[in-house]
Amino acid sequence: MPPLQVMIEAAITEVGLNDGLRYGVQWNFATGQSNFALTEGNTANPTRVFPGFSYFYSNNNDIRATLNALEERTTVKVVSAPKLMVLNNQTAALQVGDQVPILSQQVSTPTGIGGGLATSNAVEYRDTGVILKITPRVNVSGAVLLDVSQEVSDVQPTRTGVSNSPTISTRRVATTVSVQDGQVIALGGLFRDNKSFGKNGLPILSRIPILGGLLFGNNNNTQKRTELIILIKPHVLRTPDDLTAITEELRAKIQSVEPFKTKGKIP
Asked: Could you report the per-residue pLDDT of 145-157, keeping only the tens digit for each?
């Protein structure tokens, strides 16, 4: 009998928090202010490493429909929407981000010429962005236990030390949740505040010392708050026929894109 496999469908999104969503996505939708709802999870005991982290179940077991419901209320940026196949009790990993070089070691050695020193640097690369690791565990009742490890890291504009290495802000959470086969779960509670500063005004006149900025220009400072929402939907593949059905579904989606491709040389 072939081992169980799990198809994990995910969507990593950044949801803008406007006035109606200032307390977060879950609070708004769970209080009955929309036909769409997120129900707080209570079938597992999560291990919360980061304060404010939460997980919730969608009343619609379709990720696309869940995203459409969110888009009716605010802006939604889909950072990544992967589908991963993983064996039962094995770990699937996903990273969306960059590798940042960091000076890890600096060694000075005598050159033997006039008492001079030669400096050599050792650089290591640090993964940043969103790093998601999921381990599914299918039990006999058909429920799927998901061990989820999530890390969100950003490179800050400040620098530290004489090496001028970047400062990396990191948030990590780890939890175990229980979902049914084909059920959508939403992980949220990680917020980000983005600030931007700028100036605008009439050309030349706004550059006049003192009076120019007051009379012909103004500062344009904005602040935007977003919440990182990760939607996960596991689908257990128990038989070869289940795997064939998934393959055919993917093939149909690829073929539906074919008519939009340009064939031949572009004049």
From this structure: 999 888 888 787 6
- For residues 191 and 24, the answer to whether their CB atoms sit within 8 Å is yes
Q: Which of 188, 179, 214, 184 is nearest to 199 (CA)?
A: 214
Q: Which residues contact 14 (CB under 8 A, 6 or more apart)?
A: 76, 77, 79, 192, 226, 227, 228, 229
Report the distance separating Cα 233 and Cα 185, nearest Å. Answer: 6
Return the pLDDT at 8: 92
- Ranges assigned E (strand) in the chain: 5-16, 38-40, 54-58, 76-80, 83-87, 92-96, 99-110, 117-127, 129-138, 144-160, 165-179, 185-201, 217-237
Expressed as residue numbers, the domain containing 162 is: 5-256
Residue 264 has pLDDT above 90, yes or no: no
Domain-embedded: residue 263: no
Q: Could you read off the pLDDT of 111-121 as tens digits, one per residue?
A: 767 667 777 77
Q: How many domains does the chain have?
A: 1
Residue 135 lies in a domain: yes
Q: Does residue 267 fall inside a structural domain?
A: no
Cα 78 from chain centroid (whole Å) = 9
Coil/strand/helix, residue 67:
helix
Bigger pLDDT: 199 vs 153: 153
Confidence (pTM): 0.66
Beta strand 54-58 pairing with 185-201: antiparallel
The DSSP bridge pattern shows strands 83-87 and 76-80 to be: unpaired
| pLDDT attached to residue 81 | 84
Helix (H) or strand (E) holding 165, with range, is strand 165-179
Question: Which is it for strands 117-127 and 99-110: parallel, antiparallel or unpaired?
Answer: antiparallel
Residue 264 lies in a domain: no
Of 198 and 143, the one with more pLDDT: 143
